[in-house]
Amino acid sequence: MTYKKLNINSTIKVRLTKLGKELDKKLWEDFWSANNLLDKFPYTPPNEDENGYVEFQLWNLMQDFGAYCGLGQELPFETVILIDEKDLNDD
After folding, report:
1. From residue 88, how far is each of 2, 6, 46, 73, 75 by CA, in Å?
2. What ranges make up the beta strands (E) of 23-68?
3. What is the dihedral of CA 81, 87, 90, 91, to 10 degrees?
């Protein structure tokens, strides 16, 4: 088996599910509301590419959605994660 290295700061792409889109909005609004700045920083949905994928840094995806990923749970994103080959290293 050959392994490649991936840095958690790498940008990846996923397709958010309905739950994921709702969580993304809630997380944004909770953060800015807690700082009384939601009026200054209103939520805008992430930009989807032509195939419906949105970009995250891997660590950010894990931080925001990791608690919602588990056996038998409704997932916040589809199970396919796109990784740019340039971010995979042998060394």
Report:
1. 12, 5, 25, 29, 25
2. 54-57
3. -130
- Beta strands 88-89 and 5-6, pairing class: antiparallel
Q: What is the pLDDT of residue 2?
A: 87
Span 36-70, pLDDT tens digits: 999 999 999 999 999 999 999 999 999 999 999 99
pLDDT score of 90: 83
Q: At what angle do helices 58-65 and 18-34 cross, to 10 degrees?
A: 90
What is the chain's Cα-based Rg?
15
Domain ranges for the chain: 9-89
User: Could you give the CA distance from residue 45 to residue 28 in angstroms, rounded to a whole number?
Assistant: 10
Residue length, the chain? 91
